[in-house]
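Lecture 7 notes: from sequence to structure.

We start with a single chain of 410 residues. Read the sequence below before looking at the structure.
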Amino acid sequence: MILPRIGRRSWLLLALLFGIGLLNYLDRQTLSILKATLKSELVLTDTHYSWLVTAFMAPYILFYVISGRLVDRFGTRLSLSVFAAVWSLANILSGLAQNFTQLAASRALLGAAEPGAFPAIQRVMMTWFPKERRAFAWSLLSPCTTVGAILAPPLVAALATGWNWHFAFIVPGLAGLFLAAAWWFSDRQPPEFPGESEPAAAPPLREILSDRRVWLLLAARALTDPVWYFHLFWLPGYLQERLGVSLPQLGWIGWIPSFVASAAVMATGRTTDFFVSRGFTPVRVRVTMFCAAAIFAPIGAFTTFAPSIPWALVLISIVAIVCQIWFFGQGLLVADVFPKNSAATIAGLLGAVGASGGLLMNAVAGPIIERAGYIPVFAGLACLHPLAAVMLWRAQPRLVAKAAAVPVPV
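Now the structure, written as tokens:
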């Protein structure tokens, strides 16, 4: 079988998407990396920090749903250009903030714009890459957020210590404006692939929500996303405040969990491609991948008992691998189960529900940590991926629908 050719414009867009996804995660991590610095500079408490995260998460949830519909309505060229430009401007405003109120307002604007990247990415991958090559292209793109998490600690630390904390927000914001303009001029005249016709309009939201498979994926996302959001917003502060890691040291070691997770995702993508190419049902391959990763999630409960920083990094890295494998697989699962004209909307719904779980986790994390420490938080989070894995495993027939069921080796 001759695989469809991927044009140069598709590769250019993949490279731009990588940069956009990288900055998306780097920008949101800046606050957590500078938590200790901002607490001192702006006289903040852990509760204030929790409110800052909430100021980001509340509009993030709402606009995840809205942005998905906007992508399906207006396409990726206009929507992704606007999303990237607005969140980059918000990041610059964060760097110009002089007090808690200004910083909270800029984080709210960041939260309103950033979620649009992921429904747009879902739609771009299904538009510019044929289904026979889509998993390969997605495996190349999937580490973009992880690389953003890898680069964030050393880059933010270097900008904050080399100049001051303001530049840690402003410089990435300027880079984001450049990428937004580049995307506007590049996303034009998508290719047409045989056998992949697209309906003229996205189906109504009520039609999408009437599909029980959508609700199944929403439930799994609500359970698992709080783990990632806690690690994203609270672990840099944990390493600094509880284990004595300085900001420069965080720049040297903070990238390790994300790097390890990125390598694991690339290996997982190749492994799942191997089984799919040999005739196994794609949905069953994805669900098996989720379950295999979830087996290791309970290890995260022992993070607070780590006797040293290296051991803490090992445990954190294992949880990061689990989280990233689930994120990687969700995009493929949506592409396997649902049509292209509703993919961005479904991706937006999944992101909104997952972020809602993250918001709830953040709202209770600050008070719990202040009163009882980190142990109950880590212990509770360790149970969530296994619960979601059991739910998806039992619901495989519903996800596969009328496709022939082929068992996957486990």
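Residues 402-410 have pLDDT under 50 and may be disordered. Keep this in mind for problem set 3.
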